[in-house]
Design a protein that fits this description.
Number of strands: 7
Organism: Megalurothrips usitatus (bean blossom thrips)
CATH superfamily: Gcn5-related N-acetyltransferase (GNAT)
GO molecular function: N-acetyltransferase activity
Largest sheet: 7 strands, mixed
Structural class: alpha+beta
Number of helices: 9
Protein name: N-acetyltransferase domain-containing protein
CATH topology: Aminopeptidase
Radius of gyration: 17 Å
CATH architecture: 3-Layer(aba) Sandwich
Helix content: 25-40%
Strand content: 15-25%
């Protein structure tokens, strides 16, 4: 089955002075307004908190692999081995300490798995390229990470941001039952705050759905490249 994906590479820069518009105040009469304004707690994910990391893995399994457009196009949603390999990447990235998670009470309902990116030494592979070459042996996982490398290579975001590191919002997952509450937007906004606190020069993301592109527009991300990709599932 063919899937035409509208892929947008976006970046927020510079972090210093970057402002994210606040959520609109709640008002009566419209259920959608009520749902958007239901608050969740968005907290940093500690680099060494194994319990939280495993909760984040469960969110990615239910809220990212089966719902993200390119994951579905590559077949990640139906390939247990590809998921296992990608979850190793998720755990390694969570250990960098730049990710954030959203909670409804004590339940994690969303996570932004954020990768700290530095410009590779000329002639050396990036972290994603090394993972694609050495770890992503399943066709679906290799296709996804190779796609990420391809899109990242379409723009020099380090030059755009004016330095390194930058923080890449690698995977944004929200549980299906938590949809419609602005969880993805809150996770993205908090990602920008965390990146600023770490001294990052910018935040980048690859948006493959209109939902995520709307988050980027609302939070002031700038489109650096837009590409129509044809994939096969």
């Amino acid at each position: 089955m063919e899937a035409n994906l509208d892929v947008t590479v976006t970046a927020a820069r510079p972090i210093i002075g970057h402002s994210c518009p606040a959520a609109p105040p709640c008002s009566g009469g419209r259920r959608l307004y009520h749902r958007v304004c239901v608050a969740v707690r968005v907290l940093p994910v500690a680099a060494d908190d194994a319990e939280v990391h495993e909760a984040a893995v469960k969110v990615i399994l239910r809220g990212f692999f089966p719902r993200e457009a390119y994951c579905v196009a590559c077949g990640v949603d139906a390939d247990a081995e590809a998921q296992r390999q990608l979850l190793a990447l998720v755990r390694a990235t969570l250990a960098e300490g730049a990710s954030v998670a959203a909670y409804d009470g004590d339940l994690m309902v969303g996570v932004a798995v954020n990768k700290v990116q530095v410009k590779p030494v000329p002639g050396q592979a990036s972290d994603f390229e090394r993972f694609a070459q050495e770890e992503a042996t399943a066709l679906a996982s290799h296709s996804l990470v190779a796609f990420m490398c391809h899109i990242d290579g379409m723009a020099d975001l380090f030059a755009e941001a004016g330095g390194e590191p930058i923080v890449e919002l690698m995977f944004l997952g929200v549980l299906p039952e938590a949809g419609g509450r602005g969880v993805g937007r809150q996770l993205t906004a908090r990602t920008v705050e965390v990146a600023r606190g770490r001294g990052a020069h910018g935040v980048s993301a690859i948006w493959t759905t209109e939902y995520t592109r709307a988050i980027g527009r609302r939070l002031g991300f700038t489109v650096r490249n837009r590409n129509f990709e044809r994939a096969f599932a």
